[in-house]
Prior knowledge:
Elements: H1 2-14, H2 32-70
Amino acid sequence: MIxxxxxxxLVICGLPARLLGCAACFxxxxxxxxxxxxxxxxxxxxxxxxxxxxxxxxxxxxVRRANRVNDAVPGDQSDPxxx
Length: 83
């Protein structure tokens, strides 16, 4: 295992510096790679916010359904107008 990790470390250290950083790290914020990175982050943000919205709306659905089920049903024994 130590030999493998040493090999991986040596391979990473031997890579050219150009491969180790993105366009934003090297100050080329107007390159196509930086635009793609920004678009990717926006897509991921939309998916995360959408997932949280669905998660929250599920609990709102559960609360509304529980309130609807707990409403008095006509003819029910707990209905005050029945007595």
